[in-house]
Amino acid sequence: MIGKLTGRLEYRAQDHVLIDVRGVGYIVYCSDRTMAALPGVGEAVALYTELLVREDLMQLFGFTSLVEKEWHRLLTSVQGVGAKVSLAILSALGPDGVSRAIALGDWAAVKAAKGVGPKTAQRIVLDLKDKAPGVMAMGGTVTEAMDGPELDAVVETGEPAPAAKPARKKQQKQPSGAAAASAGALSALGNLGYGPSDAAAAVAEAAAAEPEAGEAELIRAALRLLAPKG
């Protein structure tokens, strides 16, 4: 299984790119959002990947984050949803949007993706709603694990650049931004005894209402949503 590629972007087409990894070229298909986030031709690039193997076909799909990759894997596990439909959903909503839509049971948002009918959208939400909390707790992009010089060194030599201070263990970078805030809020709500599905739906609704909210703000907003009504 090919789980990640690090190399140079050789060319880009409408829905795929060619990545040169030390002389070997890999064609990788991506969502529209991932395509837009990639660097220019000739620059260093790193992508998480998922390999599709059939009797007459082998295709690689690329993702900038583990959240996007996991949603692709889960979406394609739903009956009637292939890789093309999965990428269309990720293109329309993005991984965070998919998390929110499924956590909230919002099949109409899923249906907005090209080629997705109402029955398919409802099946996706029904089949994957219990998976949303686990995916929302993930975060970070593949390039957050390496800084610029280190990524370039891997491309040129196949080995990471030496640490500036070898005696000290390099601290692993943590997910940042909205993904980290949602993950932290989910963890806090779980510690307070809320069920994963209820917590995920509340965090998703709070994040949709306040996209720039930090972890503390999300927790407070989610608690208000989870408070007994009446």
Topology, element by element:
Blueprint: E1 4-12, E2 16-21, E3 24-29, H1 32-37, E4 44-54, E5 57-63, H2 66-75, H3 83-103, H4 107-111, H5 118-128, H6 132-136, H7 148-157, H8 177-191, H9 196-209, H10 215-226
Parallel strand pairs: 3-5
Antiparallel strand pairs: 1-2, 1-4, 2-3, 4-5
Helix pairs in contact: 2-3, 3-9, 8-9, 8-10, 9-10
Describe this structure in words.
InterPro entries: DNA_helicase_Holl-junc_RuvA_I, Hlx-hairpin-Hlx_DNA-bd_motif, NA-bd_OB-fold, RuvA, RuvA_2-like, RuvA_C, RuvA_C_sf. Residues 160-180 are annotated as: Disordered. Residues 179-230 are annotated as: Domain III. One of its GO terms (biological process) is DNA recombination. There is one protein chain. It is built from 10 helices and 5 strands, in the order E-E-E-H-E-E-H-H-H-H-H-H-H-H-H. It is globular. 47% of the residues lie in helices and 17% in strands. The longest helix has 21 residues, at 83-103. The termini are far apart. Strand 2 and strand 3 form a beta hairpin. With 230 residues, it is α+β, with helices and mostly antiparallel strands. Among the domains are: 4-63, OB fold (Dihydrolipoamide Acetyltransferase, E2P); 69-130, 5' to 3' exonuclease, C-terminal subdomain (DNA polymerase, domain 1). The model is unreliable at 163-175 (pLDDT under 50). Helix 2 (66-75) crosses helix 3 (83-103), helix 8 (177-191) packs antiparallel against helix 9 (196-209) and helix 9 crosses helix 10.
